[in-house]
Design a protein that fits this description.
This protein is of the alpha/beta class. The protein contains seven helices and 15 strands. A hairpin with a 4-residue loop joins strand 13 (212-216) and strand 14 (221-224).
């Protein structure tokens, strides 16, 4: 059963699409519907349906602006619109399909098959990912696995200088000045970093203890081997000194 979410600013359009999805197919269950896109973004950033049916023309933000605001994109998107002029643009925004209103039952069945194929590939990809992560954690203790931009990155912990928070995102700064942005809060990143190598010295920073060059006690900051200056929070200072 495909668990779907519908986002459309018109309640009648939601009702119509819900009826079409559940009456033309016994393979779709409507999880949630939203006429307010902001509410939908909050829901989708913490929940992962099997598919999102998204209207393009909405007054507060259009469907393409909506997709840019999503941090969770681990599900297929089907654009629904009354205007075929949006079709090419929809596909360029990584939608797997688009449906013209009023929706034709044959087109709907084709779309459902695309959703099933997409999710099948996603499941297989996830299994491979789990195997790689498990192998890395078991046999290579000096590396961590980062999932970003549809790929797995295996990072040597010695090559990480520090991690900086930016709200729901974090940036990993490497020894070679490479910056890796991931959609994880700093708390989540801290959980996957080995404790003996890293310490969260500030609400916004985690540092690699092996890559600290100096600690300026009076002014309350460390200097990394890259010469980055990172502040040490007053309430974390004593724990930090013990760690050193």
């Amino acid at each position: 059963m495909i668990k779907a979410v519908i986002v459309d600013d018109e309640p009648k359009a939601i009702q119509s699409l819900s009826w079409e999805l559940t009456n033309f197919s016994n393979e779709v269950e409507i999880l949630e519907t939203f006429s307010n896109p902001e509410d939908a973004i909050v829901y989708l950033n913490s929940n992962t349906p099997d598919c999102l049916f998204l209207d393009i023309q909405m007054p507060t933000m259009d469907g393409f602006q909506f997709l840019k605001k999503l941090s969770n994109k681990e599900f297929p998107v089907v654009i629904t619109t009354a205007y075929d002029e949006y079709a090419i643009k929809a596909l360029k925004h990584e939608a797997i399909d688009y449906l013209l209103k009023p929706i034709d039952s044959d087109d709907l069945q084709d779309t459902i098959q695309k959703i099933k194929k997409f999710n099948s590939r996603l499941i297989n990809s996830s299994k491979i990912e789990d195997v790689l992560i498990s192998f890395n954690e078991k046999y290579d203790k000096k590396k961590i696995t980062i999932n970003t931009d549809g790929k797995l990155i295996f990072l040597d912990v010695d090559d990480i200088l520090f991690v900086e928070s930016d709200g729901n995102y974090s940036t990993i700064i490497m020894n070679d000045s490479q910056k890796i942005v991931i959609t994880k809060k700093l708390k989540e990143v801290n959980a996957i970093l080995p404790e003996h190598h890293f310490f969260r010295i500030h609400n916004s920073y985690i540092v690699n203890l092996n890559n600290i060059k100096e600690f300026i006690k009076n002014e309350g900051y460390v200097i990394m081997k890259s010469n980055h200056k990172i502040p040490v929070a007053r309430q974390r200072k004593s724990d930090f000194l013990e760690k050193l």
